[in-house]
Amino acid sequence: MNRDSEYVYKRPLFLAHTAPATCRFIMPFEKHDTSVNERHSGGHSELPATPGPTGTGLKEALELAQKKLQVVGSATRHDVLNQMTAIMGYNELLRTMVHDEKLLHFLEIEHRASEKIRRIFAYSKVFQSIGSEPPLWQELTRLIHQAREEIDSGTVAVRIDAGTCSIYADPLMVKVFVYILDNAIQHSKRATEIRIRLQPAGNSAILSVEDDGVGVVPEDKEKIFEKGFGKKTGWGLYVTREILAANSMQIRETGTAGTGARFEILIPSNRVRTGTRAPVQ
Fold this sequence. Notes:
Largest sheet: 5 strands, mixed
Distance between the termini: 72 Å
Strand order of the largest sheet: 6-8-9-11-10
Mean pLDDT: 76
Radius of gyration: 28 Å
Shape: globular
Number of domains: 3
Order of helices and strands: EEEEHHHEHEEHEEHEEE
């Protein structure tokens, strides 16, 4: 090879399969005169930097990647749920045909696992939708009533003390109350009442959701917001925190173990208002 030239790597032209499970790139090379570069860099050639997407190109690439993720996520979720519906249907049919106690026990385990998968996909759909719609003013009491319609509260009473307040948030805000109320009903065990109250706190407001159940032990107060933690799916409070974070809100558990759980949502002053009044800036 000539002293004043070298081979420079170019973009691969195509992908060649060399075995069923392996592949290799066919990399073309061209000769490039580097004598000038070498003379000015002590004999070391300098390859030009590969240009990357900037400005509008970067934005378009990001939007395309997000669109692909949404399509793949939606299609995967739809197809899997269709198959889960078939599995759960046959599971129900078998439970009416089988009388062996041991087999019935296995079918019950299968049913619970299938239901858990269905609920996880429901949570993932909400998670994927966070931030996809612009925020809007929503009446707090109406949001809570909508949430109650999505869950079975049984004999647990839900009392609301929020006046005519509205909050500026993602349309998914209703899911925050669905998940918090469902969590109280599912995990409080002995709860008979859930109290929801909005009160001012300096330059912000605190929305508290409190029950009279067993509460949360100190070592679990942060863990309950982690994905996968808990006896159910472990997604409810995790998605709740993510929705709130996307709306500049925070959540914490401040109850006392043995007397009940208390969730406090910190709402910035510019995202809450009373009636038709403009929020405090």
